[in-house]
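Run log, item B.
One chain of 478 residues. Sequence copied directly from the ordering sheet:
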Amino acid sequence: MEVRPWVGAHRTFEMDDSDQHIPVSIAFIGGGSLNWAAELMADLARDTRLRANVRLFDIDHAAARRNAEIGARFAGVSRGAPASYTASASLAEALDGADVVVISILPGSFDDMAQDIAIPAAFGIPQAVGDTVGPGGFVRALRAIPMLAEIARAIRDHAPRAHVCNLTNPMSVLTGTLHAVFPGIRAWGECHEVTKIRRQVAQIANDRAGEAHYGHRDVQVNVLGINHFTFVNRISLAGRDMMPAYLEFVRAHMQEGWVQTEPGKDEEHARYFGTKNLVAFDLFRRFGIPAAAGDRHLAEFLPVSDYLNAPERWGFALTPVAYRVRDREAKLQRAEALRTGERAPRASRSDEALVDQIVALMGGEAHVSNVNLPNIGQMPDLPEGSIVETNAVFTQGGVAPVCAGRLPAALGTLVRDHALRQAALLRAVLDADSAALFPLFRSDPLVAPMPEQAAREMFAQMLAATSHVLPDDLKGAA
């Protein structure tokens, strides 16, 4: 099958000779975000190519207004053309005329997430994250699919030619929702998990050079898989094949691991999000291909007995929702300090690729990123139409997935099973086929070993706990 881009209408801009910035109108859905919105503001302040008009929409309008005030402060420290920020009163208002739509919402609440974790734990299923697969990811998808379906219909009606970036998990199912509800949508799913292996490779090169010369953006990888269960079969840096060096690194750290934390994070964050990469290294031992995502996500795609029953042994933590609540409160305090001027904004570049992607789509330099797209042949061993994660080329013509190749056969079987389940879950929710849901829930590798009656009881409890945000036609699925 030919792999081709989704080609959109080319935009032409009338710019004054003195202003070479590329104009772009961005609708940010979930514009009260305390994480992704702030990342985008800092990135736009650091960027020198775009002139952005950002419209923030959130069901919590006060949060969107707060972020608009914070955005104005970031505009004041811009290195290029200052971005403008406004809080939109409605989704339609935010979308009208948008060139780019960014979706970053929380499907439900932290209380819902706490139940996604606590109920399975009571039945003997620990989850490190619980937002992608397993019982937590499944029930989160039940809450989120109708929300993304509503957003997709609004994009169809108000911004049908916009480029759409989904940042919300479960990434595969929700990016699939956008395409299923609005088949003409030009949407991709954006995730930074692959940054982890790129950082490792940059560190290997820096250790060999004896100086901190390289960063993760200097590392190129060929990505294969589905979101949070990704792998790479080629690695290069500065024209050099880095796969031999990486495999040597894995063998050297196979037993004790290699500690990896996110730069700039505090000790508590490192405790719950840092890993030793032992799961990734063990998957390399088992399947012969480097794993690219973080251990906390990778572990959830396999039976509990593989990794989740002994997270300390494998060097990662089960992140409690209570920590997320504390972290959110700290972010609220930082946001208020930014809004009032007690804290100074910084024009800094995050790990995210979104601004580079937008520049390319608006006619600037082409850009290559790993993203989530419908499978039109870029992964021939996975189901056609399912959402897969590979590299893609961003240009003014659209987003063109790169042919990634095939996974090792045994691993491909595992990935295909998850991809099929995700596609079937999406279809069942959109078709209001509640009878199909429990068999799909039951077939997940974390749930499958359970006695059927216990699995039914767990599913019933999880549905009851989240029923306040479920559509009526899904509430009786248990």
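Observations after the first pass:
- Residues 109-131+193-340+349-477 form a domain with the LDH C-terminal domain-like fold (CATH 3.90.1820.10).
- Residues 1 and 377 are 6 Å apart (CA to CA).
Flagged for discussion on Thursday.
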